[in-house]
């Protein structure tokens, strides 16, 4: 791997992490939902955008910057898991199930929709 590859992923990762933090701050300050909405939002949006990116067939450079870097850090599997465990520990069974179904099912569905839309613009 070249230095340029690391730079693309690093810059994308930095921007994605800042974007995720900004979304989390916005949701925490302006909304109250039963589910961890900020994480849910970034994960399903990120799934859609990654599907769009892949469906469009972007170049390796854009895939590294936006797909691996930006969307890799914008979405968050670890926080999703932690919040799911917190719902389970708090005995919020329905919320736990709904959170997992929306995040997994919605993520897969939106990745597919994004992919199909991306193919239209390829």
Describe this structure in words.
This protein has 5 helices and no strands. With 122 residues, it is mainly α. Helix 1 runs parallel beside helix 3. It is globular. The model has no long low-confidence stretch (mean pLDDT 95). It is found in: Cell membrane. Na(+) binds at residues 72, 75. One of its GO terms (biological process) is cellular detoxification of fluoride.
List the helices and strands and how they pair.
Blueprint: H1 3-30, H2 37-56, H3 60-74, H4 77-89, H5 93-120
Helix pairs in contact: 1-2, 1-3, 2-3, 2-5, 4-5
Keyword list:
transmembrane, mainly alpha, single chain, 5 helices, transmembrane helix
Brief rundown of the structure:
The protein is 85% helix and 0% strand. With 122 residues, it is mainly alpha-helical.
Main β-sheet: number of strands, strand sense, barrel status? none
The averaged pLDDT comes out at: 95
> What does the overall shape look like?
globular
Q: Helical content, roughly?
A: over 70%
